[in-house]
Design brief:
With 173 residues, the chain is mostly helical. The relative contact order is 0.13. It has six helices and no strands. It is elongated.
Length: 173
Amino acid sequence: MARTTDTGQPGLLGIYLNDHLAGATGGTELARRVAAAQQSRETGDTLRRLAMDVAADRAALLDLMAVLEVPVRAYKVYAGLIGEKAGRLKPNGRLLARSPLSSLEELELLRLGVTGKAAGWRTLRLLAETDPRLDRGRLDELIARADSQLELLEDLRVRAAQAVLGQGPAAGA
């Protein structure tokens, strides 16, 4: 029997969490690809750690879904994977090689994904006030990690924009 929320509408939490799972699945793949494409050792190491954190956040979402007895909808997981793969097909100014613009756009996509993830954690944190199955402390940790990821991605995004588009202090000098 479908769980009914306080609003009387069955399954809305399940739909919401499965939508976030689809995004987390695509985001995990994107984070891994961005890390693998990075040429700089320092930035590559940073992005590999970020990719591991993004994968851990996806696992945390799956754990929360289990606690809340929300079944995983495989078609949404596959949609997240397919969406990430389809995103690779966009024109980038180069026919056969990776464009320098790709890194900037991928960092922006990752940042958008982490913004959505943080919003999801905050929504679950609100729910935790009335649902004892949710660990408020763990959700606070996930929110803090997402906020840290946003700061890191913004720094990397700005550096990529400066390098690719020639915008920044060195460009005008």
